Amino acid sequence: MKKVLVIGSGGREHAIVDALSRSQKVGKIYCAPGNAGIAAMAECVPLKETQVEQLKDFAAENGIDLTVVGPEAALAAGISDTFTQAGLRIFGPSKAAATIESSKDFAKRLMARYGIPTAAFETFDDYGKAIEYVGKGQFPVVLKYDGLAAGKGVVIPETLEEADAALKDMLLDARFGKGKVVVEEFLTGPEFSFMCFVDGTQVTPMTLSQDHKRAYEGDKGPNTGGMGAYSPVPIITDEDIEYSLEHIMKPTAAAMVAEGCPFKGVLYGGLMKTPSGVKVIEFNCRFGDPETEVVLPRLESDIYDIFSSIADSTPMPETIWSKDVTMGFVMASKGYPGSYGKGYAITGLEDAMADKSVRIYHMGTSSQDGSIVTSGGRVLMVVGSADTLQNAHDKALEAVGKIGCENLFFRRDIGWRVL
Ligand code: AMP
Ligand code: GLY
Question: What's the CA-to-centroid distance between 140 and ligand 1, angstroms?
Fold first, then answer.
């Protein structure tokens, strides 16, 4: 039986650990650093996701057969390169390939060069030139900081004054560090998340999901990491999926090979169905969070075999998806995505999970004196599985109602586009 190490501490990693625990091949799962929910399924290792050298030593000393990387920060820190150089098997792209997420400018230039459909754009490092360009264009306009900014690097100003403040913040005050800003055309339409297992030019699609980025009901309030998701996405047709695979995901994988940075891992297409066709909003170099929590429970194939085939560059096995559909609600700390308190006790988890078609993935929890307490912005992802999205919705909401915590809020309207 294989020993697997999962890197990360959120709901995404909890869902990866859960999928690995269903594998016939996997005997022991470690997770670094993990969280209070993951601790019930895996042995948590007190190493942070970016402690690359220590993680490598841990994997070597403990005979880990395969390491699976969740978060982008570990990939951008070069964890795959370090492990590969040490002869350790790892699932996750190299630092060079992770640039597709860590640099918006790299991703946009790649798409422009290879004819992959996306919003028109210009990149600036000079505040004066950027504000002049924005002043001549239309509103709303999309401004994206060219680097990792923990989901806070995108602003969509409605007026020149708002745009000016955001550009000053990013280019003059260097809020996220010294860097460039991509100015993008504003597109409209429903968004969806298309994650694919990729190994060079081999691309195996996962079932679709849809996230809800805004903090409050009615898609109002600030952007977050995501407040809920469901899978599949019935408003996206089979033709849209075929188009997205053939004209976006496969050409992007091929472009990465042509550019000398072949992608191995999960390529996440954040796509939008605009009136003029499906276009790329962003690429990520990893599983989405909370999308993974609704997608992986539907995977019937052995995930260890998929991860292994990519780590070893052997042909990927077939992926089979359950007909049961999923919907999940994020319970987040009051104040998120701004500042929030931690350490609030959570009760009722056992009762909420008594129904076997409910899964609760921990996003930001820890153990304190024998009880589970909040320790992050997003705290729990409560997922229901059922024959229809409406039933999955009802199951998940019923479970949410059983969870007690004075400092959590959630959006009741997850799935509004399809229910
Ligand atoms: P990103 O981090 O690039 O995914 O952007 C965060 C969110 O901003 C996306 O999920 C969209 O809702 C929105 N967004 C980004 N780019 C555009 C665009 N070109 N047009 C409209 N909305 C956008
Ligand atoms: N839920 C969006 C992301 O993972 O980037």
Answer: 12
